[in-house]
Each structure stands twice: as structure tokens, then as C-alpha cells.
Design brief:
The protein has 338 residues and is of the alpha/beta class. 44% of the residues lie in helices and 17% in strands. Helix 2 (30-47) packs parallel to helix 6, helix 2 (30-47) runs antiparallel to helix 10 and helix 6 runs antiparallel to helix 7. The longest helix is centred in the middle third of the chain and has 20 residues, at 132-151. It is globular, with a radius of gyration of 20 Å. The structure holds fructose -6-phosphate.
Length: 338
């Protein structure tokens, strides 16, 4: 396979619609919504198209304006989520907008009711809490954003080749992170008995903070909140004391300096900081309580790597608390009712 190009056969025929789209509307729920939120940053930056990311359950009961030259992307692991399905049916009734699906389950309702789409081929996801499906959704959305950006000539040929190459290197970098699972478990061990946790990230890592918090809530029943790091001072900072762990996505990107000052704000109030940093990072290491390194990567791809330690932390905390990680209470793998 040519590793310098992106092939997405399922959307090949509708690429002109995507290129001409006035706007992309993303419809999803839960973790799939978080994947959509990551892609908002990527589509806007690389493909220069406005994006709205909507909870399907809210969208379907608003009176949204949908234009015929909008492209709607429904993201759903199961392809059966009732609100997402109802939202695309509403789009269909009200407009000629092109509707795409990003689903994991082949032949699912959403994949059948969309005009075109991409299967994530993540394999059957047994655990109720979505993990590999999230990674696969972001991968597909990243590929779409890069492809569209290149086709629209917002990404130069040489950059495009580099970006695609960087994408192919992600699995190896994930394996690197997994080699440190024992260390991550030791970090998790320190936070097994907390009652609250805060997750902070900026830019493309803000939705990863939301996802980290969701995973902790779902499988360990610890209350957790994800926030854009700069919003902390607009409220959540009041919660910080020596009992509050704050998981900070602090990789070396454009907002690195700002994230450092967010960490200082937490430390000044005696909060515990667990920072996910770029390999070799030295400054945060001196101020954070725990530091977990991830390999350096293209900024656009950082969600794919940064979510892995957060997933492992949630998993380890849940196991240590004696929770059923695969089958958390009150949750269903596929939410087919409103
Ligand atoms: C969280 C989780 C849920 C789902 C949501 C949407 O771990 O699994 O939040 O992401 O119920 O499900 P799908 O993607 O099947 O539409």
C-alpha cells in the first residue's frame, strides 16, 4: 500500500460534496461526540470548513438551520444510537444535505441510512466503555480532515506526505506507551481512593480531557470533570485542594507555556497534578506530582496518543476499586432508547 496517500473508498463518490460543503455538522453522543469535537479542530484548521459538533439528542429537538450544501457526519460505534439515528432522519426530512456515517458495526441502522461513510473496522468492542472505537473514529476523522485539506489545497503536497507518514507511525508510538503500562499503573495506584478528579486540556486535547473524565466516571464511579484548561479559573479552581487530582494534557505544542501556568495555578492551591507530557520534557517534571511521557508526534495526532494513558489510568483505578470494567453498572453498550 502507498503510505503517502489516504484512501477512503466509502466517501470517494461524495468527496466533491465535502469539498464544496458550506459547513460540516457532526452528530453524535458520548464518546463519539468527543471524537467529533477533536475533528472540529482538525477540519477547521486543515480543511478550512466551519464545523458544528452537536449532541444528537439536543439537535433533534431544536429547530436547527440545515442547508442543502451542508455535510452531516453521524458518528456512532454501534450505528444504533436512537438519538443519532433520529437526528439524521430529521436532517433527511428537512434538507438535501449529504449525510455521512462513521460507524463500527457493519450493516447497522446508521450505516444503512446514510448516503456514504466509512467503517472504522475497530473490531467488536466488548467493553461497554468505548476505547478502541474512539481511537478508530479519531483516526478516520483525521484522515478525512487531511484528505480534504489537501484536496482544497490548504495543505501543501510536501506537508501532506509528512502528515500521512506521521499517521502511519501512530501504532508504533502507541506500542511505546503500552510498554510503560506498569509505570502508569503505579501512578494510578496513588489515586484509587479519590472522590473527584479534574481533567484539563487545550485545543485538540480539550476533547481528550473530556474523554478521560468520562472513562473514569464510567468504569470507576469517581466523579470527574473535563475542562478546557483556561476555563479552570472561571469556576473549577474553587474545587482544588490537596484531595483533588488534576490530570493535565501538557504536550509540547503552541499552548505549552499556557498549560505550564495552569499547572502552577493548581500547585499553588495544593492540588495534585498528573501531567501527560512529551517525551524528554523537563520543566513540568519539576512541578507536577507525576509525569507520564508520550512520544513526540505531529500536534494533530496528539489525541490518539494522549488518550491512551488516560484510558489505562481509568482501567487500573477501576480494577483496584474492584469494579467490573467491561460491564459498568447502569450502562448499555448501545443506547437504542431515548
Ligand atoms: C462511553 C460510551 C458512550 C457511547 C455513546 C454513543 O464510553 O461508550 O458514551 O460513546 O453511547 O454510542 P455510539 O457510538 O454507539 O453511538
Amino acid at each position: 500500500m502507498d503510505q503517502s496517500k489516504i484512501f477512503l473508498g466509502g466517501i470517494f463518490d461524495v468527496l466533491p460534496k465535502l469539498i464544496e460543503a458550506r459547513r460540516i455538522i457532526i452528530l453524535a453522543c458520548g464518546t463519539s461526540w468527543h471524537a467529533g469535537l477533536v475533528s472540529e479542530y482538525l477540519f477547521e484548521e486543515y480543511a478550512r470548513v466551519p464545523v458544528e459538533v452537536e449532541y444528537a439528542s439536543e439537535f433533534r429537538y431544536r429547530k436547527p438551520l440545515i442547508y442543502d450544501n451542508d455535510v452531516v457526519i453521524a458518528i456512532s460505534q454501534s450505528g444504533e444510537t436512537a438519538d443519532t439515528l433520529a437526528a439524521i432522519r430529521m436532517v433527511r426530512e428537512q434538507s438535501e444535505a449529504t449525510i455521512l456515517g462513521i460507524c463500527n458495526v457493519a450493516g447497522s441502522s446508521i450505516s444503512r441510512e446514510t448516503d456514504a461513510g466509512v467503517y472504522t473496522h475497530a473490531g467488536i468492542e466488548i467493553g461497554v466503555a468505548s476505547t478502541k472505537a474512539f481511537t478508530a473514529q479519531i483516526t478516520v476523522l483525521t484522515m478525512m480532515a487531511f484528505l480534504l485539506g489537501h484536496r482544497k489545497k490548504h495543505i501543501a503536497d510536501s506537508d501532506y506526505v509528512q502528515m500521512v507518514k506521521a499517521l502511519t507511525q501512530v501504532p508504533e508510538k502507541m506500542r511505546e506507551i503500552l510498554k510503560h503500562e506498569g509505570f502508569i499503573k503505579d501512578v494510578a495506584n496513588k489515586y484509587t481512593n479519590v472522590t473527584n478528579a479534574l481533567y484539563l486540556g487545550r485545543g485538540v486535547l480539550y476533547p481528550v480531557a473530556l474523554e478521560g473524565a468520562l472513562k473514569l466516571k464510567e468504569i470507576s464511579y469517581i466523579h470527574a470533570e473535563g475542562y478546557p484548561a483556561a476555563e479552570m479559573k472561571h469556576g473549577p479552581i474553587a474545587l482544588i485542594d490537596e484531595n483533588m487530582p488534576v490530570f493535565v494534557l501538557a504536550i509540547k505544542d503552541d499552548s505549552y507555556e499556557k498549560i505550564i501556568s495552569n499547572i502552577q495555578e493548581v500547585k499553588a492551591r495544593n492540588g495534585k497534578v498528573v501531567a501527560i507530557v512529551t517525551e524528554g520534557e523537563k520543566t513540568i517534571r519539576k512541578i507536577a506530582d507525576d509525569v507520564i511521557e508520550i512520544p513526540s508526534c505531529h500536534r494533530a495526532l496528539s489525541p490518539l496518543l494522549a488518550v491512551v494513558p488516560l484510558q489505562i489510568i481509568s482501567y487500573q483505578i477501576a480494577v483496584m476499586r474492584g469494579c467490573n470494567v467491561d460491564q459498568p453498572r447502569n450502562l448499555a453498550k448501545s443506547v437504542t432508547v431515548e
